């Protein structure tokens, strides 16, 4: 058991939970222990996992909020530590690595500031990936790009045609929720977040009403939930699982049997990627959580500190593994 979990366990021994899936509730350790049997710690199982990774090509996928940076009240200051940045940089040197986030691609790049990894923003609806010259792509929604080092890249934005409607929805939401204290509407380019972490309980139902009334004008748009956030997404069949597949494909690893994706994430939108890994029976899915949760993920990590430790283990394993 990792140190953060031991410390938390000691200081929460008597806590009893009231609502099972509220991220802010105290931990019920009786159920966490039994939950861990189904979703064991990726730190505890590291040796076993790497045994299964021998002779395979590891590809790393990371969510941002709650995975690389701790959850904080103000989304604009959800910075990752320099230590975490250095570790992710090292991971990017060892394995093809991508960040797949609900944030806009530009915003997550501002937070992460690494040039040796790939980025998919807007829950995967805005991907910057390597250009595969040999592959004939459907060029719809694609644009070519070049990075600072002159590498040829491709940008894939499958929800492009909804951009103006997304902006309209955002404007209406801002107008309609302006009177509610603590609401924050975040522009994630191809989707948007309505944050209610700082909204008082009494105002939650009126916020919900306002959001619903805006969406009545755009009934085809999707409403999903994350941690103290409502997410509004365009009506396309595309999520973090599709983004994972797209990135593997762009890396030339889409149809390879010896590829082993490792996906680490903490929120409901990461379940699409976990579910894909589960369905394909290929790769490791790791949920970051300090509370028991329904999940498709096979393994777990307690918090961002354990994520950093796991990533460090991975890079150390790479440096001593015979294949490298
Ligand atoms: O896919 P992710 O990278 O996990 O993005 C999901 C949402 O993350 C952010 O919100 C969450 O983190 C904030 C900062 O810690 C926190 O204040 C908020 O309550 C959380 O829901 C981001 O701001 C959202 O736009 C993303 O949809």
UniProtKB/TrEMBL annotation:
Q: Which UniProt keywords apply?
A: Hydrolase, Stress response
Catalysed reactions, semicolon-separated:
alpha,alpha-trehalose 6-phosphate + H2O = alpha,alpha-trehalose + phosphate
Q: Name one GO molecular function term.
A: trehalose-phosphatase activity
Question: Which pathway is recorded for this entry?
Answer: Glycan biosynthesis; trehalose biosynthesis
Domain of life here? Eukaryota
The record's EC number reads 3.1.3.12
Which InterPro entries does the entry mention? HAD-like_sf, HAD-SF_hydro_IIB, HAD_sf, OTSB-like, Trehalose_PPase
Query: Keyword Hydrolase: yes or no?
Result: yes
| UniProt cross-references to CDD domains, sorted A to Z | HAD_TPP (cd01627)
Q: Which cofactor does it need?
A: a divalent metal cation
One record GO biological process: trehalose biosynthetic process
Q: What does this protein do?
A: Removes the phosphate from trehalose 6-phosphate to produce free trehalose. Trehalose accumulation in plant may improve abiotic stress tolerance.
Question: Which family is it part of?
Answer: Belongs to the trehalose phosphatase family.
Protein name stated in the entry? Trehalose 6-phosphate phosphatase
- The record lists the organism as Chenopodium quinoa
Source gene? LOC110725158
């Amino acid at each position: 058991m990792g140190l953060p979990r031991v410390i938390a366990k000691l200081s929460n021994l008597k806590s009893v939970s009231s609502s099972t899936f509220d991220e802010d509730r105290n931990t019920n350790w009786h159920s966490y222990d039994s939950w861990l049997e189904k979703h064991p710690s990726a730190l505890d199982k590291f040796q076993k996992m790497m045994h299964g990774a021998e002779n395979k090509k590891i590809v790393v996928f990371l969510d941002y909020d709650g995975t690389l940076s701790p959850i904080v009240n103000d989304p604009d200051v959800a910075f990752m530590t320099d230590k975490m940045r250095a570790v992710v940089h090292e991971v990017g040197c060892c394995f093809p690595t991508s960040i797949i986030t609900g944030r806009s691609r530009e915003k997550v790049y501002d937070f992460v500031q690494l040039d040796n990894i790939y980025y998919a923003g807007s829950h995967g609806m805005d991907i910057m990936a390597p250009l595969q010259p040999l592959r004939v792509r459907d060029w719809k929604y694609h644009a070519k790009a070049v990075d600072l080092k002159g590498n040829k890249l491709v940008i894939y934005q499958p929800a492009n045609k909804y951009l103006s409607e997304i902006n309209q929805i955002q404007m209406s939401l801002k107008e309609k929720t302006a009177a509610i204290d603590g609401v924050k509407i975040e522009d994630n380019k191809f989707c948007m977040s309505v944050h209610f972490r700082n909204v008082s309980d009494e105002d939650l139902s009126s916020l919900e009403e306002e959001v619903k009334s805006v969406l009545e004008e755009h009934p085809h748009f999707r409403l999903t939930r994350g941690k103290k956030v409502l997410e509004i997404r365009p009506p396309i069949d595309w999520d973090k699982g599709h983004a994972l597949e797209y990135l593997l494909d762009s890396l030339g690893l889409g149809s390879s049997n010896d590829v082993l994706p490792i996906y680490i994430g903490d929120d409901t939108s990461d379940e699409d990627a976990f579910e894909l890994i589960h369905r394909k029976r290929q790769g490791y899915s790791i949920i970051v959580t300090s509370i028991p949760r329904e999940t498709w993920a096979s393994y777990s990590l307690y918090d961002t500190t354990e994520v950093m430790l796991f990533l460090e283990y991975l890079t150390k394993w790479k440096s001593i593994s015979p294949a490298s």
